[in-house]
Backbone:
């Protein structure tokens, strides 16, 4: 998948002549930010992302017989906000997308498989109640009514939600979760009914002509901020957890990427400039004597390469980045 090209229009204040500048690397981005072009950068990046989402919605509509959309991707790939924005595009075309989180189909904690260290392995597909999920989808496709489960994370139990669901005309199911592309999940559903989307985070920008920003580090930076804002977790805790998350992705997410009908790149070229000053204070709590310092120092040095975008209001409330930095107009 090729990266979007950001081209900015510059008008000389004296001569009124118009020139165009393309952002190739961090140096170009920083120069544009210092020249006061932050709003143009953000707007262009958001428009390009919306075009990507619109093209996916158009493809789903063209297929006509799609009843189940499956969205998967690694940690912090922006799956949740992507689903909400995709839903808006589908509704604008007369469809009724019904979002369902695969997390609500987790088995009780007592039935959750454990990893090699004896810890609960929530990344395993067998942490999902596959039998119940397949039963529910089958019933819905037959026009029958179901009651959706709700997983209570504090108690580690699956509970009744009270939410009844029956498929109406033009309704389409939208499942989101890391296992969405795993064939075991929807083995009983006809292939013609399914549309699979893989949400990825490609390198947001080049550091120089030969070096790209690490896509894994970009996701970790997103996750550090999200975990701090919404889960009360420190950067230390997130960095400690990251190797386990990565092992789970290698086993349960990346191998099934090949089954996707389309790949959605959730990266924004300006995101590290916006996240920079929000994440640096969290990393500053990790001192050189701590085991997490090597990772935190690498992330810190990466973020310091960017000239910050200080005005947080430039990032619109519907932006995918709001999933991590807060201030989203979507309800999570």
Residues:
């Amino acid at each position: 998948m090729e990266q979007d090209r950001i081209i900015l229009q510059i008008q000389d204040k004296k001569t009124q002549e118009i020139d165009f500048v393309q952002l190739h690397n961090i140096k170009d981005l920083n120069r544009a930010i210092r020249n006061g072009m932050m709003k143009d950068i953000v707007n262009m990046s958001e428009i390009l992302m919306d075009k990507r989402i619109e093209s996916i919605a158009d493809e789903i509509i063209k297929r006509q017989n799609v009843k189940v959309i499956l969205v998967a991707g690694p940690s912090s790939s922006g799956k949740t906000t992507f689903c909400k924005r995709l839903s808006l595009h589908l509704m604008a075309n007369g469809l009724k997308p019904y979002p369902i989180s695969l997390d609500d189909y987790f088995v009780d904690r007592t039935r959750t498989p454990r990893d090699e260290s004896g810890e609960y392995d929530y990344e395993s597909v067998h942490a999902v109640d596959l039998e119940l999920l397949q039963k529910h989808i089958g019933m819905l496709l037959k026009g029958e009514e179901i009651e959706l489960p709700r997983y209570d994370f504090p108690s580690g139990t699956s509970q009744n939600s009270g939410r009844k669901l029956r498929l109406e005309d033009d309704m389409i199911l939208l499942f989101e979760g890391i296992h969405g592309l795993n064939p075991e999940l929807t083995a009983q559903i006809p292939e013609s009914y399914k549309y699979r989307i893989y949400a990825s985070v490609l390198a947001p920008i080049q550091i120089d002509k030969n070096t790209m920003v690490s896509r894994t580090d970009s996701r970790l930076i997103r996750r550090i901020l999200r975990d701090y804002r919404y889960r009360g977790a420190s950067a230390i805790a997130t960095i400690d957890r990251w190797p386990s998350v990565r092992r789970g992705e290698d086993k349960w997410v990346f191998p099934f990427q090949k089954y996707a009908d389309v790949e959605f790149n959730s990266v924004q070229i300006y995101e590290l400039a916006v996240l920079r000053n929000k994440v640096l204070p969290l990393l500053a709590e990790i001192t050189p004597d701590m085991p997490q310092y090597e990772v935190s120092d690498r992330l810190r040095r990466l973020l310091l390469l960017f000239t910050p975008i200080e005005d947080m209001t430039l990032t619109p409330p519907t932006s995918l980045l709001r999933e991590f930095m807060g201030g989203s107009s979507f309800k999570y």
